[in-house]
Design brief:
Layout (H helix, E strand, L loop, with lengths): L1 E7 L8 E7 L9 H11 L4 E8 L2 E7 L4 E2 L3 H13 L8 E6 L2 E7 L4 E4 L4 E5 L3 H10 L21 E4 L3 E6 L3 H6 L4 H11 L3 E6 L7 E7 L4 E4 L3 H13 L9 E5 L7 E10 L2 E8 L1 E8 L3
Length: about 300
Amino acid sequence: MKFQIVDAFTRQTFGGNPAGVVLLPEGADFPADETMRKTAAELRYSETAFIRPLGGNRFHIRYFTPAAEVELCGHATIGSFHALQEMGLVAEGGTYIDETLSGTLEVVVGKDAILMDMAKPQTFQRLETPEELEELYHIMGLSADGQGAVTGKPELTLLPQKVSTGLTDIMMPVADEAELEKIAPDFPALTEHSRRYNVVGVHAFTVNTTDGMIHARNFAPLYDIDEEAATGTSNGALVYYLYRHGLVELDKVYTVVQGEKMGRPSMISAQVILKDSQPFVKVGGPAVTLVRGEIEL
């Protein structure tokens, strides 16, 4: 099987978020789940995508962390279609279908970026009691007061909330970039917290920045990912969360900066659009290949 290691959400190798991409031979079915999980563990990246071509413009992609299968992974999808383009299986300007456990998604291969639909956005439980807030912010190494008020809207205080555009994370606002930088999670406690709330992890962010962009950090130790440099699904959920709070406009493309603390700065583009009068989210960015090879199974 052909494979690549692709850095997504960057144009420079060793930037962005790396993902494994494995292309199954034409007509082949997926290997056993445990084989795909072990392959992901062997490649040692947060997610590895396994691509099964279905013919025409359709692909079935499954996503594995070193610990388990997940329904969708944004950066591994961007990496997958970058790899497919390099292999000559998709072309610039084309629109393709990605069949995932999270649903059927549309992917556009653009000149400067690959853009993908997120799954239908959904909001769930808010964490709003003093006990819930104190527990979460304490686990993340902060005070609950660190959530702060949004610049320009001092009357609006954002609260953590479970949000999904394919995978469910807790969106966790912090006051500013300094608070974001200070986050130092208790990973065993965060693992248990994520399991109890039935989420992949915590996506901490601030809109109170000096450069006008959104800055974020993502933590998912339940899936053996202490911190991730770029997360398409999480940032899709974040932009939808901010849209619900009146802080993001329809059709405008926003940039989320992630991975700075890890030395792998990533630039993720995200926008909220209307489809049949309902809000949907697109997330994307460029990618670059680091490694090409063959996997013998």
